[in-house]
Amino acid sequence: MENPVKDIKAVIFDLVASESSDTQQTAVHRYYAPNAGFRNPFVRVDPGPLSREQILGIWQWYRILSPKASIHVENVVYDKPHNILLVDVTQEFHLFFSPLESATSRALTRLTLTEDKGLYFIALQEDFYEPEGVAAMIYAPLASLTGFTLRTFASISNLLAKSFQVLNYWRPKKTGIAYSEECTERRADSYQKPNGNVDRSKNKRSNRSKIADVNVQLPKLAEQEPGGVDSDKPGYKYRHEVLLDDKGQML
């Protein structure tokens, strides 16, 4: 890839939803490093010799299982200093032997890239799925059951936490909805001045600021000059940076 952010959508489409097995094979050989790694909830390929060929086999089996697979890239974030590409995707996966409708799942794909002669290659692919998405890809009705199970675990967690807090274990000094609302109000007030204007110290992005160098005259300290401060002598000078708004006022 010459431009990972721009090219990744086409790369993912060729891997997941291409109409030709030759196109898919070319995409794997063109965009993955020869010793690339691959990890997701279903399979794992460790980086090493011929690992790219194993990744190709995984993608081929994916298309065999779901001949009408489709995918949509929702968002792409590129961490250029670390050569990491984060891709938020939504895909439709339908087992060819299943009479049920296709299942929709969402995943966050983390691609670690390597650069060679100005081109970027995938060195490691890691797919992170929501639990419901994993269940849906196996058997669509399991997604609802998985969601119910997770909500049940959430309720049990709250019940157990309250039970232990009755025994004074890990119990905050202040609790309850009233205290939560109080914290919310405090957070909102911290961004407001008494006259209702937004505090620019908390929202400096909305102001155009300038950096000025100011030479400030400071009197000598009494303990440094016996007998007190001598106003006839110049004070110390130092360089100080301040933020000024459009009117030249100090922020």
Automatic annotation (TrEMBL):
InterPro entries: NTF2_SigF (IPR057514). Pfam families: NTF2_SigF. This is SigF-like NTF2-like domain-containing protein. It comes from the Eukaryota. Residues 188-209 are annotated as: Disordered. It comes from Amanita muscaria (strain Koide BX008). Residues 1-169 form the SigF-like NTF2-like domain. The lineage of its organism: Eukaryota, Fungi, Dikarya, Basidiomycota, Agaricomycotina.
